[in-house]
Amino acid sequence: MAGTILLVEDEPSVGELVRGYLQRSGYRVVWVRSGEEALVEVERHPVKMVVLDIGLPGMDGFDVCRAMRGKSQVPILMLTARDEEPDRVVGLEVGADDYLTKPFSPRELVARMKAIFRRTEPQERYERFALGDVVLDRESHDVTVDGRPIELTAKEFELLAFFMANAGVVVSRDLLLDRVWGQEYPGGTRTVDVHVAQLRRKLGRPDLIRTFRGAGYKAVA
Ligand code: CA
Hints:
- The chain is 42% helix and 23% strand.
- It has 221 residues and is α/β, with parallel strands linked by helices.
- Bound molecules: calcium ion.
- The site of calcium ion (CA) has 5 residues, from loops.
């Protein structure tokens, strides 16, 4: 059993698709159709992650996220109806761990969930990540390429660690700013581009971090 997921989705077709796929992936799914029910159920089960639609009858996903964040650090993945910048930014501001734009494939949902687990589960903090011949060791703070040590600044190290923990998933500049830089956004999303360029140059592996126009970056082997 991979754990219990609280699914908050009022649309039957999306809810059934997601529940079915998550169950086949080994998760136990508690599915509710409103934010009010979600706030009740999250207290009643050992919820490992909340998959939360923004557009709900009654309180919306942002309100639910705020209310949950008031008392718990349970990972929250938000589902947005359109690829709209304000929704994504507000989602991150109210404490969501990530967001996914509808329509999405269940496979992508599970990949995102696993990426969130990798970066939120405490035992994973000391993990060693390897992608191609690039190896990052969180404990010793070492990065090597083909066995050669590479000198990175603290931000470059955190950025690379985030990419490696989310390998195979497109991460937006907003998410990178939020997770790697926190509240200080020096120069906005351009800062991300500058650091990615530096990382590519220092690693000498320009294809490791791919640019997805209008969407963000993805680390691939
Ligand atoms: Ca909805």
